[in-house]
Design goal:
PPR_rpt; elongated; TPR-like_helical_dom_sf; about 75% helix
Amino acid sequence: MLGIGRGSREGVMSLEASIKNCGRTKQWSVALRLLREGLRLGVQLVPGHYIAIASACRKGGQWQHALSVLSDMWKAKLEPNVIFFSYNAGISACEKGEQWQRALALLSEMWEAKLELDVISYSAGISACAKGEQWQRALALLSQMWEAKLEPNVISYSASISACEKGEQWQRALALLSEMWEAKLEPNVITTMLGSARARGASSGSRRWRC
């Protein structure tokens, strides 16, 4: 399939480039086939191969394969700072697959491995909690971001607000929107979300009143 020599530098680079291309086009299944073909031809895997595969699985929402890649990286005894990037991809894949428990488990593994989580790590975890309607856990992660001296971005806030809306925590959602205003994050997005939160909150309140 690849037409490369066993263990050659050209083979290593060709395989990595091919897998990355599959990641960009969300062809995760092709990426996995390329990896197996490379192994069959004797290509020595480097960190870039694993990271490219994890990225392809993330974009394809293939959380099971993303977790398998992480396991393989630990077995290959790669440096933790290299595995870090695949953890973020794994958390994002779990978010896309609506596997919030597994996403939180990956975050816990990162803490245990003493990996320094970044905004992407937390935001992916918060997004996973939002999809799982776990607003308490989402806000706990947002709070941990501040404790880690990381500034939440639009994705972090948006996911937290979404989690609060799903949990009918309108006051908390509006408080977060206020924080976004103060941080001057995407005012157009904030305006839209503010109107949505207010409308849902008012609707919920009126229903309770009629009862």
